[in-house]
Amino acid sequence: MARPNKQRSVCRMPGCRQFYPAHRPTDSITLLLSVEEYEVLRLIDYSGMSQQEAAAHMTASRTTIQGLYAEARKKLARFLVEGATLSIEGGSYELCNQNKSCCGRHQEKGEFTMKIAVTYENGQIFQHFGHTEQFKVYEVENGEVQSSEIVDTNGQGHGALADFLFNGGIQVLICGGIGGGARNALAEAGIELYPGACGDADAQVASFLQGKLQYDPDTMCSHHTHEEGHTCGNHGCGSDSCH
């Protein structure tokens, strides 16, 4: 017997259900966007949530949210480029209780927890992921830091650090410069990456939880081989050494 699809929680139905170009061709195709695909777009692109937060709100796995988000963005692109009709209907979902706080930014106490790691040195965000000697790890519940600890990396390299974070249950990494290999390793481990951040570690985590973190998703670090006495961590925030 086929396993039934798990229904995803949806907090708000779309106000408009059909979109089409002003001069619609007679042979225009109709793209169907499911209600849960709409909800993923609303939570991530409109409300500014992370995929992890959206997964918690919709009572779905992050992998499921990633799939829904990718498919929804693809349909939106076709709608814009091809001038197709877009209809929002169907899917596997259930409306949540509108009196619950899950319809806002955070859920009720105990329903949403996460772990955030920051490359760390002397209170600041260390600027080279692959050479960080410490992470500061924050336990977060419902958007508030409940505890934190400093964890030694024991000199592990780029690839091993991704496993180190994954085994520690980390869901989000905030760092400075980071190379392409490390990015791939973190993506494979399902860890959300926020590179190009700098400054006081505690303050930047607070900014992240408020949706105000200043970071650069395109930040790369080109110093994969270092001259004696030279590390990316010796450069100030915003330098051109890690870009």
What does this structure look like?
By secondary structure, the protein is α/β, with parallel strands linked by helices. The chain has 6 helices and 11 strands. Strand 6 and strand 7 (124-125) form a beta hairpin. Strands 6, 7, 8, 9, 10 and 11 form a 6-stranded mixed β-sheet that branches. It has a 3-stranded mixed β-sheet with strand order 2-4-3. A two-stranded parallel ribbon has the order 1-5. The model is unreliable at 98-111, 223-236 and 238-243 (pLDDT under 50).
SSE layout and pairings?
Blueprint: E1 8-10, E2 18-19, E3 30-33, H1 35-46, H2 51-57, H3 62-82, E4 85-88, E5 93-95, E6 113-121, E7 124-125, E8 134-141, E9 144-152, H4 158-167, E10 172-174, H5 180-188, E11 192-194, H6 201-209
Parallel strand pairs: 1-5, 3-4, 6-10, 10-11
Antiparallel strand pairs: 2-4, 6-7, 6-8, 8-9
Helix pairs in contact: 1-3, 2-3, 4-5
Task: Label the overall shape.
Answer: elongated
Mean pLDDT: 78
Which structural class should the secondary elements be placed in? alpha/beta
Specify Rg, calculated over alpha carbons.
21 Å
The count of strands amounts to 11
CATH superfamily of the largest domain: Dinitrogenase iron-molybdenum cofactor biosynthesis domain
DSSP helix fraction: 25-40%
With helices defined by DSSP (H or I, 4 residues minimum), what is the helix count?
6
Span of the ends, CA to CA: 53 Å
